[in-house]
Every structure is written in C-alpha cells, then in structure tokens.
Amino acid sequence: QDTRIIDVGSGSGHFLHFLANEGFRHVTGVEPFIPKTLRYPNGLSILKQKFTELEGQWDVIIFNHSFEHIPDNLETLRHAHKLLANNGWCVIEIPSVSSYAWRHYGIYWHQLDAPRHTFLHSLESFRILALRSGHQTPVLPLWSLRIPLLQSLVRQLLLDSGLLMPLKASPGAC
User: Fold this and answer.
1) What are the Cα distances from residue 8, in Å, to 14, 73, 107, 136?
2) Of 58, 120, 116, residue with least CA distance to 94
3) Order of strands across the sheet with 84-93?
4) With contact defined as beta carbons under 8 Å apart, do 117 and 143 qualify?
5) Rounded Cα–Cα distance for residues 166 and 130 (Å)
6) What span, in angstroms and rounded, lies between the C-alpha atoms of 38 and 52?
7) Which residues pair with 90 in a beta bridge?
8) Distance CA 44, CA 26 (A)
9) pLDDT in tens, 97-127
10) Which among 30, 28, 27 is positioned nearest to 9, based on CA atoms?
11) Following DSSP, what letter does each residue of 55-99 receive, concatenated?
C-alpha cells in the first residue's frame, strides 16, 4: 500500500506496527514525549517532534485520542490542512461533551482527565473549529468506546449512513 499515513501522538507505534505488518509501507508516527526518534527494522519511524514541526504530504493524518492533549487545536488543524494531500483524510477520535457519558456522569466522567485533556469539544465546537481551520468537510468526532469491536461497528454504521465524514483537504489547497 502506498498510502502515506502519519499517526500523531503515536507513543511507541503499536497501531503503526499493525499497519506496517498489514502491508502499509509509508507509515510514520510523531510523538514529542519519547526520549529520541525511534527507527524499527520494519521501516517504521516514530519521530520525536511536535506535529506542527512536521513537513511533507500525507494521505491520512490520525489523531487517536491525542488531539485533546494538544494545547492549540486551531493551529494544529490548520497544520493538518496544510499537510493533507488532495483528497486526504484527517481522522480525529476524541472524547466529546456531546456524549451520553458526559450528560450522565458530569464531573465524574472519566474522560475529563484533567489536566491532561486541554480541550473537550462538543460536536458543534468541533465543527466550528474544523471549518475555521480550512477543512471543507467537518468530521463528527467519536468519543471513546471501551470495546474496539463495538467502536468499529459504530464507526462503520456512521460511515454507511453518511453521518461520519472525514476532513478533506480542498483540491489545490496544499
């Protein structure tokens, strides 16, 4: 697979190892909190740097529960827009205050995770943020579901119904 994938906040690269083992040849992670850049025998690299320092063009940019830890969400999404290839996807999975869990548990909600979560968006605040950053198609962020199979099922149902749409770079915007 020639898809260029960057995983932001990738840790040691567990998810990217899975993708590399599935045949994706151009997978990279970016993680500012590791001691040094990691280079694995399968070609995978995890770069020790901030996402906003990253260069290049990417077909898929993934923020899997890392976006809510980044202090400047607008700058980050603008940088993602700049790095996305034409028809690229920016996949952001975050906890949301639009969730049942927030409404039900309030201050006891596990995903508050203060002070590590610097922002917790509602669906509307995220839609506005995405549009202000230059993305033409806002994404409905998914909040954390603890069972990956159920999470995958929900994502597939949302994609099939047209309720979940990836952020896409405008043609010629990069």
Assistant:
1) 12, 13, 28, 21
2) 120
3) 38-39, 45-47, 26-30, 4-8, 58-64, 84-93, 167-168
4) no
5) 11
6) 19
7) 61, 167
8) 8
9) 887 777 877 777 777 777 788 888 888 888 8
10) 30
11) -S-EEEEEEES-GGG-S-HHHHHHHHHHHEEEEEEEEEE--BTTS
3 state SS for 123-138? HHHHHHHHHHCCCCCC
pLDDT tens digits for 153-162? 455 555 665 5
Region of 81 on the Ramachandran plot (φ > 0 left; ψ -120 to 50 alpha; else beta)? alpha
Strand partners, 142: 93
User: 3-class SS at 4?
Assistant: strand
Average pLDDT, the chain: 80
CB 35 within 8 A of CB 12: no
Cα 26 to Cα 61: distance, rounded to the nearest angstrom: 12
Name, of 53-57, 111-115, 161-165, the range with top average pLDDT: 53-57
pTM score = 0.77
Q: Which two tokens stand for residue 21?
A: 């083992």
